Structure prediction request, 247 residues.
Amino acid sequence: MKPEIRTHQSLEDLSRAAAAYICEMAEGAVKERGIFTFVLSGGTTPRLLYEELTKEPYASRVDWQHTHLFWGDERCVPSDNADSNFYLAFQTLISWVNVPPSNIHRIPATIASPKAVAAEYEKTLREFFQPAARSDSSTSFPSFDLVLLGMGVDGHTASLFPGDTALEERTRWVVAVEGTSASPPVPRITLTFPVINEAKCVLFLASGSSKLKILQEIVNNPHTATYPAAHVRPSGKLLWFIDEGLA
Ligand code: 6PG
Prediction:
């Protein structure tokens, strides 16, 4: 499916528009299925969006009691570390809305080795999406209602970095990556493309001219572009919310 691109005048406008769109997705999901499964992204771009979601008119449009939060990736740092994607969401969103603690499915990034954490998070996801099935029996992938993603200046998304073997993963739902080329250069845990691409909707947020050339390449040559973000081709909707620095 060709991506839909929506251009906004500023990161502030982009964030407000994304908040409104997420409210629409949340209302539709809860109305149809009684639940909204929302995968959060990290980095700096979503900060304003998360803050917007705590304010009216957005906060009261989301049924937080039936909203479940997950993470697309996490750095292997303590959850109170400023580099933690959970910490970003906790400080800007979670501590301001009435989402039940049992609805927050964070990646326990420092409880064990990165590989063990990835296996643990996959187990958490399997138990959430396939409670009846044996933990490793199903080959199907979970379909999140909304996966929020960012894109790095090297075209990475989540923690799927150029040249990493994680880009080729077709079986596991969650893997660990070394993250040596990342900022910060720490091991990370990431959802894999089969899971991301099973989403009903993937929403990229991208701001700033440093990502313009990569975005143009991905949108104009979706099947030949080699950047990791180009491999996000969900069975559902694919949207890019960008600001004028990128248009
Ligand atoms: C992470 C993110 C990552 C992020 C991009 C863009 O853990 O770093 O999940 O994929 O979305 O690096 O980051 P910025 O929003 O800071 O440009």
Observations:
- The longest helix spans residues 11-33.
- The chain is about 30% helix and 15% strand.
- Residues 41-45, 72-73, 85, 150-152, 156-159 surround 6-phosphogluconic acid (CB under 6 Å).
- The chain has one domain: 4-246.
